[in-house]
Amino acid sequence: MEEQSKKVIFSGIQPSGNLTIGNYLGALKNWVKLQDEYDCYYCVVDLHAITVKQEPKDLRRRTLEILAIYIAAGIDPEKNTMFIQSHVSAHSEASWLLTCNSYVGELSRMTQYKDKSSKYGNSTSISAGLLNYPVLMAADILLYQTDLVPVGLDQKQHLELARNIAERFNNAYSPTFKIPDPYIPKEGSKIMDLQEPLKKMSKSSDNPNSYILLMDPPEVIKKKISRAVTDSLGIVKYSDEQPGVKNLMTILNTLTGETFEDIEKKYEGQGYAKFKEDVGIAIVNELEPIQNKVKKLLEDKEYLEKIYKAGAEKASYVANKTLRKMQKKIGFIPVAR
Ligand code: TYM
């Protein structure tokens, strides 16, 4: 009963690559913080991952690994609903219904679509899934009558679109969806690439030195941080003129809670070596216990199966209620029972 009075959170991560510390600090770490206050649905969004080509066995491996990471990071399976998107068919169904209430114009204006599709050169080989991807994301969110969506800054535009699609549907038929709000953390919502600190850190980058993976071994993490691009000023200062240093300070701040002022004072007159070493240590301190838990969890596939099965059952029940409403309002004849 208590759960019904709680507000609802929905969020997800794509198993399209190995998770980075950007995914962790921008999203997952906040999910853990919010879990007690909200009724949370945390999803591994495998349907989203196939908008770009995936090797089937890698997709399977990463899907389970992400579920294990959710649990290892501290999301309590007893209190939260964790599931795999493709196990709840309502997501695909609702996505079609919303696709018919979305415009090609608004979808092709999405920054992420423009970035990703520009890599393919000519439009005949761009997957339609890449264009429709934010509609599927809207379906994910709206099916659960979600209040709050904790994401990194790069998803803000998709969330605004989800709100617009919801409002349009509500106006065309009658109130059906709650209008969700984004939850974007003040710090850590955009962790930058370690080699090109004006670019977002991304799991799809070709250069492994540009990101820290959640499952990178401690020595690799420390080495990548020591190689992170900074500048020739040699001053630890939180400034837009020093994007590399600013990014490392942000990582340190989100992990240890030290303020930017404190960090500046602590490393005054010392150059970058000790500062970088400490950033590396802070990351390892946070990730190592998670990595050990992930490894243990992945040895117990039965346990993981129990969690995603129960998650899909609970999620299907809630999602189907909204889906039936949508179908009825659109004018479909209910399935005879
Ligand atoms: P995805 O899988 O690209 O990323 C998962 C989450 O990590 C955040 N993130 C970052 N945060 C800070 N710094 C970075 N460098 C960084 N890179 C990624 C993302 O903002 C995201 O919160 N479309 C979504 C997945 C999705 C979803 C949803 C999210 C599908 N349906 C419904 C919320 C609600 C995506 O591709 O995220």
UniProtKB/TrEMBL annotation:
<feature type="binding site">
    <location>
        <position position="191"/>
    </location>
    <ligand>
        <name>ATP</name>
    </ligand>
</feature>
<feature type="binding site">
    <location>
        <position position="140"/>
    </location>
    <ligand>
        <name>L-tryptophan</name>
    </ligand>
</feature>
<comment type="subunit">
    <text>Homodimer.</text>
</comment>
<dbReference type="GO" id="GO:0005829">
    <property type="term" value="C:cytosol"/>
</dbReference>
<dbReference type="GO" id="GO:0006436">
    <property type="term" value="P:tryptophanyl-tRNA aminoacylation"/>
</dbReference>
<dbReference type="InterPro" id="IPR002306">
    <property type="entry name" value="Trp-tRNA-ligase"/>
</dbReference>
<feature type="binding site">
    <location>
        <begin position="200"/>
        <end position="204"/>
    </location>
    <ligand>
        <name>ATP</name>
    </ligand>
</feature>
<keyword id="KW-0067">ATP-binding</keyword>
<keyword id="KW-0436">Ligase</keyword>
<keyword id="KW-0648">Protein biosynthesis</keyword>
<dbReference type="GO" id="GO:0005524">
    <property type="term" value="F:ATP binding"/>
</dbReference>
<dbReference type="Pfam" id="PF00579">
    <property type="entry name" value="tRNA-synt_1b"/>
</dbReference>
<feature type="binding site">
    <location>
        <begin position="152"/>
        <end position="154"/>
    </location>
    <ligand>
        <name>ATP</name>
    </ligand>
</feature>
<dbReference type="InterPro" id="IPR024109">
    <property type="entry name" value="Trp-tRNA-ligase_bac-type"/>
</dbReference>
<keyword id="KW-0547">Nucleotide-binding</keyword>
<feature type="binding site">
    <location>
        <begin position="22"/>
        <end position="23"/>
    </location>
    <ligand>
        <name>ATP</name>
    </ligand>
</feature>
<dbReference type="InterPro" id="IPR014729">
    <property type="entry name" value="Rossmann-like_a/b/a_fold"/>
</dbReference>
<comment type="similarity">
    <text>Belongs to the class-I aminoacyl-tRNA synthetase family.</text>
</comment>
<feature type="binding site">
    <location>
        <begin position="14"/>
        <end position="16"/>
    </location>
    <ligand>
        <name>ATP</name>
    </ligand>
</feature>
<feature type="short sequence motif" description="'HIGH' region">
    <location>
        <begin position="15"/>
        <end position="23"/>
    </location>
</feature>
<keyword id="KW-0963">Cytoplasm</keyword>
<dbReference type="InterPro" id="IPR001412">
    <property type="entry name" value="aa-tRNA-synth_I_CS"/>
</dbReference>
<dbReference type="InterPro" id="IPR002305">
    <property type="entry name" value="aa-tRNA-synth_Ic"/>
</dbReference>
<dbReference type="InterPro" id="IPR050203">
    <property type="entry name" value="Trp-tRNA_synthetase"/>
</dbReference>
<protein>
    <recommendedName>
        <fullName>Tryptophan--tRNA ligase</fullName>
        <ecNumber>6.1.1.2</ecNumber>
    </recommendedName>
</protein>
<feature type="short sequence motif" description="'KMSKS' region">
    <location>
        <begin position="200"/>
        <end position="204"/>
    </location>
</feature>
<dbReference type="GO" id="GO:0004830">
    <property type="term" value="F:tryptophan-tRNA ligase activity"/>
</dbReference>
<keyword id="KW-0030">Aminoacyl-tRNA synthetase</keyword>
<comment type="function">
    <text>Catalyzes the attachment of tryptophan to tRNA(Trp).</text>
</comment>
